[in-house]
Amino acid sequence: MQPGGNCVVIGLGLIGQLTCQLLNASGVRSIGIDIEDTQVKAAIASGASFAWSRNQEGLEQLILGATNGYGTDAVIITAGTSSLIPWNSAGSSAVTKVK
What we know:
Elements: E1 6-10, H1 14-25, E2 29-34, H2 37-45, E3 50-53, H3 59-66, E4 74-77, H4 85-93
């Protein structure tokens, strides 16, 4: 990751919150995603550039809008779950605009 880049963080528990803060301190725009609205609100309060619920309608379009249509440079999964949903959604979180 380089300053000015964009990174999606899936899972906004303690590690996800810290990851967003470290990304922001490094000049990387963090975009948090979690299933809990309280974690999403905490991420925004602690400095995440953007954060949404995983169930948010039009999430891919929101990510494209947050990145000025460029999509994300990386996805970091910090979710603590045995579910494969974070892994399966990582690809769609890293959307890029086809020109």
